[in-house]
Every structure is written in structure tokens, then in C-alpha cells.
Amino acid sequence: MKTAITELFGIEHPIIQGGMHYVGFAELAAAVSNAGGLGIITGLTQKTPELLAKEIARCRDMTDKPFGVNLTFLPTFAAPPYPEYIAAIVEGGVKAVETAGRSPEQYMPALKAAGIKVIHKCTSVRHSLKAERIGCDAVSVDGFECGGHPGEDDIPNMILLPRAAEELKIPFVASGGMADGRSLVAALALGAAGMNMGTRFIATKEAPVHQNVKEALVAASELDTRLIMRTLRNTERVLMNSSVERLLKVEHEKGDKLKIDDIFAEVAGVYPKVMTEGLMDAGAWSCGMVAGLIHDIPTVKELIDRIMAQAEDIIRNRLMGFLEGTSTRKVA
Ligand SMILES: Cc1cc2nc3c(=O)[nH]c(=O)nc-3n(C[C@H](O)[C@H](O)[C@H](O)COP(=O)(O)O)c2cc1C
Fold it and tell me: Is the CB of residue 82 less than 8 Å from the CB of residue 62?
């Protein structure tokens, strides 16, 4: 399949693996890129720019296909040395960067000077337009369904994607709630040139996370995520567990007076405990509603091949069949 996104990044399939803290290591990024998508290393999971440089080199050993690095500009307790992370990306020869959180405006000159394609992840049309204005090459439009930070507007992809299509000139991918060939065809129909997946890629053989995490995703339904940190305007969609239950109780009691310190134990330093040690109740960790569509743990290649085969079948047989009056099959 050829779209503006496959052409922009030089990849075979219009499928991107979004940056994920303590998930987006070289093993997953390389597996996605080897399967024809765009794999992404999560920059800030590497504690220093030197470690990111090593992770990029490790990924290059595992694939000769294009891959990218995610740089997240979220409110953190101590700002990381972003210029040095960017230097590691540039020196590592990486040609794609996924930015997220605050606007990457101040870093655009350095990224563009190195010939890097920048895809900024946004949860609104206005932020997408800003990304276009400051020179981003593409946008990842992240709907309310998404795992991680859906922003504060609460617009699901059924509305957000066609709105983005109405306003944007640069290409965009649909992010949030994407899992299979149905998602891809729907995303293309709504104006996107591909899709970005987070949660779905965690439940794959190559995702370098504890087996408990993968099994929790298979066991979870679309009803099992919760939004936390709303009153702090740092909303995050996470999988329900006993820590989240406790956190929500504190949020309910404190209301608008909630401070980050009140929930520090449930949100700080959680990812290594969950992703590496498999302690599923250690705290709040990002997960999308798409958990309801995850029923197995395939290899990344099986997943991507299956998505592309299903998308092609839907377009050629189901949709063309409707036009020709011959399609009666349902897709499930
Ligand atoms: C466990 C987890 C960790 C994530 N960490 C990050 C991150 O560090 N930076 C970022 O930009 N997005 C992060 N995301 C968001 C994903 O890149 C992606 O935008 C999102 O998962 C898409 O929604 P989906 O989960 O419904 O596919 C994370 C998502 C998950 C599930």
C-alpha cells in the first residue's frame, strides 16, 4: 500500500509504532521496521543521551530499515537535556522523529538541518495546525480513545480525524484505538494516510516487557481503562488496577485541590516495576481502550501482515462488493 506516509518515511506499510515509555526499546522498534512499518525508540526511557546513542546503535544492528526516535516534551519533575538527546539522534543518523507533548518549535531548526522528518503527536486540530505552521512534516492525530495522554478536549477519532482532514495540508496518521485492518481502512476513509498504534504493539512476542503485561492486555476489555490527573490538566488513560482505584479515591476526595504530591506514589517510577518486573498493581500505567480488541500475542510481523491482509480484503471485497452489489459478508 502506498500513501503519503509510506512515501514520507520510506516504509512499506502505513503503520507506525508510537513511542512508549519502557516499551519502545530497540527490540520492538527493529521488529516493527523489519515488518515494514516505522518502529520508534522512546528517547527518554534512555536515562542519558549517551544511552540513547547506544540504543540507536543497537537498533541499527537489528534492522537496515528506517526507524525513528520519540521525544516527549511533557511536564516532568526535572527537564531532560533535550539538545543533547537531539544531538544523539542526529549523530546516530536517525531520519524520523516523533515529538509529543509540548510544541517542538524551538528544536525544529536542529532537526530540519539534519534532514530529519518530524511527525508531531497532537490531540487537537489547533495543535495539529500549529505543528504544520512550524514545519512538521506530518502529524499523528491522537483521539480521546488513546492510551497515554489524550489531552483535555475529549474528541474521539470519529470526529477528530475528519476535522483534521478538513484543515491540514500535511499528511497525518490516525492514533488511538487502532488495532487491525478494520482500523486502518477506517482511518484511511476518514482522511488519514496511515495509523499509529501503541497499546496493540505491547501485546506482541517481541515487545520487551514482562509476560504479565501482555496477558493483562489480552484479559482486559474496552471498559477497563480510566482517566487520571484530570484536575491537574495532565490527563492520562491508564489500565484499571488496585493502585488506580486508590488514586481515583484520593482524586475524588481532594477535588480541585489535588496536588501531584497526593498521588506521587501511584504515578512516579511505575514503569520499570510494571514493564520489567511484571508487578501489575505497582501504579498507574498508560493503556488504550483498544485493549478490548486485543485477543492474542502474535509476532510483530504476524500482526502487521494480518492488518495489511485484512485491510486489503475489506477494500477489495467488502467495500467494492457494496458498490457492485455483491457484498453481504460482515467483518469481524
Ligand atoms: C504504555 C504506554 C506508554 C506510552 N508512553 C509514551 C511516551 O513516552 N511518549 C509518547 O509520546 N507517547 C506515549 N504513549 C502513547 C503512544 O505513543 C500512542 O500515542 C498511543 O498509545 C496510541 O493509542 P493506542 O494505545 O490506543 O494505540 C504511550 C502509550 C502506552 C500504552
Answer: no
Alpha helices (H) along 141-193 = 157-167, 181-189
Using only C-alpha atoms, the chain has a radius of gyration, in whole angstroms, of 19
Mean pLDDT over 275-289 rounds to 98
Give me 79's grid cell.
Answer: 527537564
Domain ranges in the chain are 4-208, 211-290
CA 68 / ligand 1 centre spacing (Å): 15
Name the pTM for this structure: 0.97
CA angle at residue 177 from 171 to 182, to 5 degrees?
Answer: 80
Q: Tell me which residue of 279, 153, 238 sits closest to 248, measured CA to CA.
A: 238
pLDDT interval class at 74 (50, 70, 90): confident
- Measured in Å, residue 23 CA sits from the centre of ligand 1 at 9
Cα–Cα dist 287/299, whole Å? 20
SS3 content of the chain, % helix, strand, coil (to 5): 45, 15, 40
Q: pLDDT per residue over 83-111, tens digit each? A: 999 999 999 999 999 999 999 999 999 99
Cβ 99 vs Cβ 119: under 8 Å: yes
CATH architecture for the domain at 4-208 = Alpha-Beta Barrel (3.20)
Pocket around ligand 1 at a 6 A CB cut-off = 18-21, 23, 42, 70, 72, 100, 121, 142, 145-148, 175-178, 196-200, 285-288, 290
Can you give 255-276 as a three-state secondary structure string?
A: HHHCCHHHHHHHHCCHHHHHHH
Alpha helices in the chain (DSSP H): 4-9, 26-34, 49-62, 82-91, 108-113, 125-133, 157-167, 181-189, 199-202, 211-219, 242-254, 264-267, 270-271, 300-313, 320-324
The helix (H) or strand (E) run that includes residue 96 is: strand 96-101
Which residue's entry shows cell 544511552? 51
Atom of ligand 1 nearest to the CA of 175: 22
User: 77: which DSSP letter?
Assistant: S
Place of cell 485493549: 291
